Request: fold
Amino acid sequence: MERLEVMKKELYRCIHCKACKFTYSGDPSRDGVGEYKGVLYEGMVPSCPSGLEYGWESFWNAGRMWIARCIMEGDLEFSENVRDTIMQCITCGMCEVQCENKVPCVDIIESLRAACYFSGVPLIEKHELVSKIVVERNNPYGGDKDKRFEWVKENGLEEYLDKKGAKIAYYVGCTASYRQINIAVATCKIFKKLGIDFALVTQEVCCGSPFFRIGRTDISQDLMNTNLEVFKNYETVLFSCAGCYRTFTVDYPKWIKKELPFKTSHAFELISDLVKDGKIKFKENPELKGKAVTYHDPCHTGRHFYIDAQRRIIDESKNLIFDLRKINKWKAEWFEKPRIIIRALPGVKFKEMYRIHENSFCCGAGGGVRAGYPDFSLKTASLRLDEAEAVGADIMLTECPFCWRNLDDANTMYNHGVPVYGILELIDKYDLIAD
Reply:
C-alpha cells in the first residue's frame, strides 16, 4: 500500500469528469474520416479499450480511480473480484493524456495492482504461470535461457555476440528473442549495413516490464538489477522493443531513484536522425510502389514517453505558461521521428489514422492483458486495424514486436488483409537502403 498511499494527493485530483473516456476530449469538433464499420472517426471517440469491451463503470478509468479511493479509505477490501476488474486495464495511458488535472492514472493502477497482490490476493492463473517461468528461465515465454541468442548463429551475426570494445549494446528483449525473431534479425542487419559497432549481450534478461505492469514488483526489481549490472559498462543501449525501451528509460530511474549509467535510444531514433541528416538514402522497390502505409504509435514509445517528458518539463518549470510551448515542441519532434523514415521511403503513400501520436488507440497487448485475457486483447487489436482500413491502408507499420504480434494475430484472426511490419523490418525485407 505504500506506493499507493504516496499517490493519494494525485488521486484526489480526479473529479470524475469522464473526459478520460474519450480521445480528443479537448477538441470535440475535430474533423475525421467519417464512419467505418459503425464507428464514427470524427470529433470525440470513446477510447478506453476495457471500457469499450465491458461497458461497466468499473472498467473505465474513472471507475478504477473510485476503486483506488475506496481501497485507501477502507471502504473496500482487496478481493479476487477487485483484482479481476483492475487487471483488465491495458495501462495504455489514453485516459491520462486526456486528463486536464494530470492525474497519473497508469502509475495509480500499477500501484493498485501491486498492493492487491501483496495484500495476499493471488495473481490470475496465467499471470502466476508467467511469473514462475520468468524466475526459472529469465523470460516470460518459457524459452530456454541458453538459447536466447540461437537466432544469431542462424543469421550469420556471431561477430556481435559480446563483442569486445563495443560501446553500444543492442538490448533485444524477450519477444524479439523468442517470438518475433524477424524484428531482431532485421534490426541487426540494418545496424551492420550502416557500420554501427554494437554488441549483443548474452547475459541480458527480461526487462521486467510485464511484472511492473501486473504488480509483481519484486520480480521486476530483480530483473532490473541484473540488467543494470550487465549493461553498466556500455555508453548507449539501443532497443527495438517499445516496452523494453520504456521500462529501462522510465521505470528503472523511478525505482533506483537516480539516472541510468548509460544512455538509451530506440532504433527508430537512430535511423530517423541519420535520414534527417542525409546519411541514409532509400531506393524504390516495385513491390511497394503505390502502396498506402499507415503507422501505429506504440503506447510505450508514444504516449508513455510523452507523459514522462511532460511531467519532467512541468516539474522543472519556473514559468509553466512559457514551458507549455516546450512540451508541444518536444511532442511534435518526438512523434515525427518514425514518420521521417516513412516519408522518406520512395513509392509508398503515407496515410495517418484518425487517432495518432499521444491519442493513438492501443494495440491491446500491454498491461498483462495479452497473457491474461487474449480474446479481449485481440478484439482491441482488431479495432485498431479497422481504423487502418478506414483510411485505405494496405500495410500497417509499427516499431514494437509486441504490437507487431498482437496486430498481426488480429489481422489473421479477423481477416483484415492489412499485413503488419516493423519499419526496420520493412526496410530490410525489401532492401530499401540505397548503396
Residues 320-343 form the longest helix (24 residues).
